Amino acid sequence: MGWLCACFDGGSKEERREEERLASADARAKAAEAAEKRQEEFDKSAAGRAARAQMQAAAKQSATPNKGEPVLKWQMS
């Protein structure tokens, strides 16, 4: 008789899986929204502006090559 109950339980397992999938997708969407909000707040803050300026300066420095000059110069005397 236990096999009969197992047969009917399969539908509820599928429903449960679908509910879990929907809940998971909803949680991911909410997490993405929260992360985007935190990023916007960081960008508006002084630390965010400083970080952006530092990244732009680093990009500008790496964009200008050293024109074939060696990075380290040394002499033998």
Automatic annotation (TrEMBL):
InterPro entries attached to this UniProt entry: SVIP (IPR031632)
Pfam families per record: SVIP
Name the record gives this protein: Uncharacterized protein
Protein's organism: Punica granatum (Pomegranate)
